[in-house]
Every structure is written in C-alpha cells, then in structure tokens.
Design goal:
The chain is α/β, with parallel strands linked by helices. It has helices at residues 8-18, 99-112, 120-127, 176-185, 195-208, 224-228, 233-236, 245-249, 294-313, 324-328, 335-343, and strands at 3-7, 23-30, 33-38, 64-71, 83-84, 92-97, 129-134, 160-164, 168-173, 256-263, 266-273. It has 2 domains: 3-208, no CATH class; 224-258 and 273-343, no CATH class. The strands form 2 sheets. Strands 1-9-8-7-6-2-3 form a 7-stranded mixed sheet, with helices on both faces. Strands 5-4-11-10 form a 4-stranded antiparallel sheet, with no helix packed on it. The longest helix has 20 residues, at 294-313. It binds iron/sulfur cluster (2 copies).
C-alpha cells in the first residue's frame, strides 16, 4: 500500500492540476455550512471543513434527474417513443468526501446495482467517480459511525484516503483509480517509513473520541413482527412532523418517485427524491393509504434502516452514523435512542 506525503502548498497546486483531467467536486462554504459542489476553475476544496448539511449523495443521485424524453407530436418521427436523455459522464474526482459518506455510497449501491436491476444513471455517475476521502480527525458529538461498521478513517469505497497531519497530508492510495488521480495531480513523493503507524495512531485517537454508540446485536434475532408490533411506536414518533428532513439529509436514503412532465408536445420523465415520511409516498390510486398515520411512516423509516435492510442484504444496518438526521430534526428525534429501544 503506497502512502504519499504532500505538503500543503503542493496539495493546492496538484489538486488544480488534476482539474485538467477530472471534473473536480469538493466541499465549499455555503452560507453557514459547507456543501459538495463542482469546483470552478481555480477553486479549491476547503479541506478544513467540518461537515456538510446535505450528504454528497446528490452527486450520483440528483434531487431531480431527467431519465427519458419524448414527443407527442404526430409529425415527429419519434412520436410517443421514450428516448434516453443524453448525458455526459466525464471523469470526476470527489475530493474531501468523508469516510462515512463513501461507505454510504456502497450501501446505496446494494440497491442500485443488483443482479436483477441496475440503475444506469446512478451506475454511470458512480463509475465516473474517483473518491478522494478526507479522514475525520475530530469527530462530531453526534458521530456514532464506529458502531455502524464504519468510522472516521474507514477506507471502504475510497480510492484515496487523505489524512491531514497538520503540517501536510498523507495520502494512502487504495486503488488504481486513486493512483491515476495522484498521477494526474503530480503527487509522487512517498512518505517515510513511519507514515502507516502515524495514520494508525491518528485513527485510534479519532475513534476513541467517538463516545456516541448504538447497539443492534439483538435486532437481528428478533422477528419483523416483534419489532413492528412493539408498543413504543406511537410514543417514539409522537414529536415527528413527517417533514422528511432526515431522509433528504441522509446519505443512505435512496427513495425516489418518477413523474412525467409534458410541455405542449414535448415531455420528460424525471426521477425525483421522495421520502417515506410523506403521506403521498404510499397513497394508492384508490385513495387507500397503508401508512395513513404519521407514526406508521416514522416506524417505516426506522424499520427499513435497522431491520429490513439488515435482513435483506446481511451487510449491517442502513445507517453510517453520520449524525445529520440527529442534528437537523426539528423534533429532536434521535435514531440512536430509537435503535437502542428497538434493540432492547
Ligand atoms: S424524524 Fe424529524 S426530521 Fe425526520 S420527518 Fe420526523 S420531524 Fe422531520
Ligand atoms: S445518522 Fe441519520 S442521516 Fe446519518 S446515515 Fe444514519 S440515518 Fe442517515
């Protein structure tokens, strides 16, 4: 495993140089927070950022994405034929993505890249990406990633793991894609022999700072109905206003809706983010709604993340412990408390 040393001035120059080969995306200041955005010419990712309010999932799964186009004009040779919207997927380097967000992409991939079904839009965007992660030296108070099969230095789903040592960066190359990005940036100075042990020590320190934990050990052994019919759901969901903030901010929530929009004789079929927290999500054409009451929707969210996903994929829970939903919920609904209630 190659580890490179990059001083901070060389980092800036190298990242900009890699922009000649890649479309660069990274965290930039956005009002009172940071957001992942495509970087303009000469713009650098803010490697000192703390967190992004929204996860970077929209890079692969846009909030609204045109999938198909059509014409209803009888004089048009392609009348009433759906055509795939033409899109380009140039190589993209996602710089500064946090390890739990890269892990979340791997969980979402379980759903969008299956034997039976593949989402071509998500997959093409995914394959175009090189993920250059930034380790978290100081985890947030709501970070419970170490009890979600990931952590502040997790390498899962990353092509490069960059560690800020204060004086410079150590970049651990994890894949051929990562090596190609480092070559494009001109990063080629190998770090000293103590680099690996330094990263291990920083990783241990960061993990030790995560005091927030959840337990799921008993959930796997319980039946769906034991959890579904448990008596706590109405109390648990009492404050929830079904606003959907948690689902939109979450890096692992993948639900979408498909709508056709026609303007005159031209139309588009669009995939839009949706949320299990809204009443319309399960409303049938007949008017019947199997999740008529708000508590049923809240229950669905937690059952999906903490039980159905675990049973279906055997890859742990559908949560990476980023803490966004905890920080942003207007009703102080805390997945850690709910998970521990379900577990008990
Ligand atoms: S749990 Fe919180 S953020 Fe999520 S829908 Fe309910 S009130 Fe909104
Ligand atoms: S902590 Fe909340 S927002 Fe983060 S992955 Fe888990 S459920 Fe999603």
């Amino acid at each position: 495993m190659k580890i490179l040393h990059i001083d901070k001035a060389s980092w800036d120059k190298g990242v900009l140089k890699s922009g000649e080969t890649y479309r660069l995306t990274g965290p930039v200041k956005d009002k009172d927070t940071h957001a992942f955005k495509n970087l303009n010419d000469g713009e650098l990712p803010d490697m000192g950022y703390v967190e992004t309010k929204m996860s970077p999932k929209a890079l692969l799964f846009p909030r609204s994405e045109v999938m198909l186009t059509y014409s209803t004009n009888p004089h048009d040779g392609n009348c009433n034929i759906m055509k795939e919207a033409s899109k380009a997927y140039p190589p993209r380097a996602v710089i500064g993505i946090r390890p739990f967000d890269a892990k979340a992409i791997q969980l979402v991939k379980l759903n969008f890249d299956t034997e039976e079904y593949k989402d071509p839009y998500w997959l093409k965007a995914y394959e175009a990406c090189t993920f250059v992660g930034l380790a978290i030296n100081q985890p947030s108070i709501t970070d419970f990633s170490t009890s979600c099969n990931t952590g502040p230095f997790d390498e899962t789903g990353l092509d490069v793991l960059v560690v800020d040592t204060g004086h410079g960066f150590l970049a651990k190359i994890l894949s051929t894609k990562g090596q190609a990005w480092a070559d494009a940036a001109g990063f080629n100075i190998e770090a000293g022999a103590d680099a690996a042990s330094k990263i291990t020590a920083m990783k241990k320190e960061a993990e030790a700072n995560i005091v927030s934990k959840i337990s799921v050990d008993k959930i796997a052994g319980k039946t769906v109905l034991e959890l579904f019919d448990a008596g706590h759901w109405e109390d648990t969901a009492f404050g929830c206003i079904n606003c959907g903030t948690c689902t939109f901010a979450c890096p692992t929530c993948w639900c979408f809706d498909i709508q056709d929009e026609t303007y005159g004789t031209q139309g588009v079929r669009i995939k839009n983010w949706d949320s299990c927290m809204t009443g319309l999500f399960t409303m049938h054409g007949s008017g019947h709604n199997p999740r008529e009451y708000p508590y049923q929707r809240t229950r669905q969210r937690f059952m999906h993340k903490l039980k159905y996903f675990m049973d279906k994929y055997q890859e742990g829970i559908m949560c990476v412990g980023c803490g966004r939903c905890i920080k942003q919920c207007p009703a102080n609904i805390d997945i850690r408390e709910i998970c521990n209630t379900m577990n008990q």
